[in-house]
Write a structure and sequence with these properties.
alpha+beta, CNF1/YfiH-like putative cysteine hydrolases, 6-stranded mixed beta sheet, 6 helices, 14 strands
Length: 213
């Protein structure tokens, strides 16, 4: 995980993203946040946290609320998305931030493009912990929706590289720097929650992105 660091915090271990501009923070939790985002987390962040009900769709919402899978802000704010294998994609641009929940359905529907069309193309993006191609086994009905360049067929069943697809698309759209954690939530020994590994009773990770200037 080049540049990403595991650090202790009042809310448990967090993974802190590298090269985040001054006036911003980006980190990923390892504690279960299946329930409501509480006062402890908001105190650690230092401001109210915007979030929304995630539905594997493509709606992008300013400061969240309702159903959406991408949150953005052009004012001081903290944006949080929950993941348990899906890819958290965070954008920091000139005067805006965005946090995107991108599962395979979102990738197929190009939710990252929807977010870019909404807020503009940032200078940098960060790809957080998610299920990676090593573990993301799918059926042919899912694999056929992806470009073969992002499918690993060396296994019994195809494996899809969501992070690779998203990174490539970000670069195609003009994002100069894409920081990829390379962290797999599903791999044995992972410090993150994983739906594939833990099932329906598994927890949720948070990707928290803030803008304070």
């Amino acid at each position: 995980m080049p540049g990403f660091s595991i650090e202790p915090s009042p809310i448990g271990r967090i993974v802190v993203a590298p090269e985040v501009p001054a006036g911003h923070r980006l980190f990923y939790t390892t504690r279960d946040y299946e329930g409501a985002i509480g006062e402890e987390l908001q105190a650690f962040v230092g401001m109210p946290i915007a979030h929304c009900t995630q539905v594997h769709g493509t709606r992008a919402a300013r400061l969240g609320g309702g159903e959406c899978d991408a949150l953005w802000s052009d004012v001081h704010a903290a944006l949080a998305i929950k993941t348990a294998d899906c890819l958290p994609v965070s954008l920091i641009g000139d005067g805006f931030i965005a946090n995107i929940h991108c599962g395979w359905r979102g990738a197929v529907q190009r939710i990252v493009d929807v977010a870019l069309d909404t807020v503009g193309v940032p200078a940098a993006a960060w790809l957080g912990p998610s299920i990676r191609v090593c573990c993301f086994e799918v059926g042919e009905e899912v694999a056929e929706q992806f470009d073969e360049a992002f499918i690993d067929r060396t296994h019994v069943k195809p494996h899809v590289d969501i992070a690779g697809l998203v990174a490539a698309r970000l670069r195609e759209r003009g994002v100069a720097r894409v920081h990829d954690s390379g962290l797999c939530t599903r791999c044995d020994g992972s410090i993150f929650h994983s739906y594939r590994r833990e099932g329906k009773r598994g927890g949720r990770n948070l990707a928290v992105l803030t803008k304070s200037r």
